[in-house]
Amino acid sequence: MVSRRSYLTTLAVVGLAGCVGSPSGSATKSPSDTATTPSSTPSRPELTIEAAAVQYSYRYGYNADEVRIRVPDGQFVMVTVDASEVEQAVDREAFSLITSGGQYDEITIDYEYPQGLDVPGELYMDKREGIETKPRGWIAFDVPAQLDREPSLRVETDTGSWEWELDTGRATAPPPAWDWTASAPETVTVGEPVDITVTVENTGDGPGKFRGAVQYSFPLYAFNPFNNVLHPGESGESVVSIRTDNADSGEVLTYVVRTPTGTSEVSVAVESRTSTSTESST
Domains (ranges, CATH) in the chain? Predict the structure, then answer.
């Protein structure tokens, strides 16, 4: 859940200046201070915005044998920053996102392990007891599903506050919506792979990436991720193939399909090669 700060009334006079992040990961440093910082205070920190992206879900490892999908209240804005050249360490809580509707704190990611994000790096980690400092990494924000303008990244410390514009054009687009089904064959022979087909349609008004995963316990506890990038009205299909080597004849294998809008199960019965060939010859 988003922790929302009260909106800064001084935003009307704030000059937004800074660097523009791009999903390609190219780094550009901001050249000047913002108007919010008096000349007597330190200059703008040597902070680099490496990338910024919008996404509507992410996968994460819930435990050793389970994956889950986290979805935002509106949309996630992910920003990769590099603060390794900043003289004074910047805490993660110093970052916030400024939109036309308010100011939003970074969201908690503790004990979750996001996978397949659209921005590079690991979670930005500041200096805390028992935690390794990682002053280069991504920070996540949960903001309304469609913004009136692109947001900016704000850093607020004891010595001043500064803002950087972000290149997140999709933040102003309407969100996607998903209609999907999962299917699998009723039976397979021992050693034949199980092909699980996930068909999805984007029924929303904006583009997005449908992130899902098929979770299973045979031949080992694992999951296979899949993605579909779809524009409004488009449909796509993902086929996840899972081995059945060493499965027992008569065994029923169950697979859990996880998506941003819910889960579904499909089951497949395993038959021996002998029984299958006998039936086909009669």
Answer: 4-172 (2.60.40), 178-281 (2.60.40.10)
